[in-house]
Amino acid sequence: MSSVSDLFVTLNNLVWSNPIIFLILGSAVYFTIRLEGVQVRNIPHQIHLLFSSSGSDTGISPFATFCTVIGYRVGTANVAGVAVAVWSGGPGAIFWMLVTSILDTAISYAECALGQVYKIKQDGEYRGGAYYYIQRGLGNKPIALVYAGLTLICVPILTVAPHAFSITSGFKNSLGVSQYITGAIAAVLLFIVVSGGIRRIAKTAEMVVPFMTIGFVLLTIVVLVLNFHALPAALATIVSSAFGKDAMFGGLLGTAVLWGVKRSVNSSGAGMGEAVPAASATECKHPGVQGLVNSFSVYIDLFVCLCTGLIIIVTDCYNVLGTSGQVLYVGQGSAVMAQQAAEDSAGIVWAQEALNTIFPGGLGATILAFFLFFFAFTTLLNYYYQGETAIAYLLYNKTQKTRRAVIWGLRVAMPLVFYYFAIQKSSTSFASGELGVGLMVWFNVIILLLMSPVIVKVYKDYKEQKKAGQEPIFNPEKLGIKNADIWMEINAEAIAKQKEKDDSK
What we know:
Distance between the termini: 72 Å
Low-confidence stretches: none
Largest sheet: 2 strands, antiparallel
Structural class: mainly alpha
Strand content: under 5%
């Protein structure tokens, strides 16, 4: 088992080396320029779109999709991942995480809009994903099959481990509840929700996501208000460390950038295509709608990461490891930090200890354990749906009965895999999960760059219709986009009216 773990770590370090950092940042800047700063120019309109449309028997509403994607993006990586980034890259990693996330929002728009363009209707539901636009847009089915297979293996199976362990360890550390009990309860709840497909997943996300996000933000506000005196110094440390100007953390500039980018992508998933299946399941009139709605979700993910970073810095519940392996800094906010440094450990405990400085008797750790349950649980729901969509794609030429049977197999298997990882003494697949994310980023971002002419064309079409005072309607034939026939059916009535209007001129 140790040799397998070492292999994953080696491969992970190879995938997450400098080239992927240049790919992500370069592509994010490229799409920001080509899409005219789409992520910052349309925020009021993005919020309006969240509540302006409804779903149908075929697709779910933009708001339901937004909550589903937020449920995926806001997970344990927003807490444990931020701690790991600070441990390995110093406080400056928080700054670069924020910068990368803002730029990555343009990539999120690109992949979600493209997923809508090439979605299909299968078994009475809209289906879409990166593999659909790889095959139907780029015309490369072998690469699409590889990506779909990678999604099925990496997302609903390998990446389950850290979330399962986070749920059970959080309750064990705070309340002493056995991992077997928490794991069993969570596994049963997971099966109940995923067995209802995308509509039950979306409904659950609509109920849970606003509660968990607002609640965590309120916790952060309490911590910051009570530690207001330490906030200016914390912000100064984050910024100075980001540019190598801090006396203690100045030598971590390179690793701060690396870990900031790495944590941003692993947390938000922007660029790896994970949000595309849920985005493609939405009922809308133009792909630009869902591109704008889902790209806005990156800001929520970004804000939760910032909350975690501020909590641990202002309470001094963080440690920093130097590039040569020596511990540069041990936080004084909790006696547990010294033990964490000695064990070469970083994660959820930091945030729990930060909250314990405010809430007595370990109440802070208990509160965070419940939030982590919701963070991890909603992420797992989206992981499942990505696996379901990959199965639907891989078995496209099989009968509906065959597809349903295999999908039900995943619905049973995933809770069992979850339970297995939930009862382990430690999570052994953080490296394997990151490896899967990295491989998917390499595939997906390069594909997005190759298909950027279509992405830009779709964005400009949406913008021009809005500028003319019209409700944007997508007509792929008018734009010369092939293999997007479903839109001629979705917008048939509106396209016919537009044609009559044009003919009468």
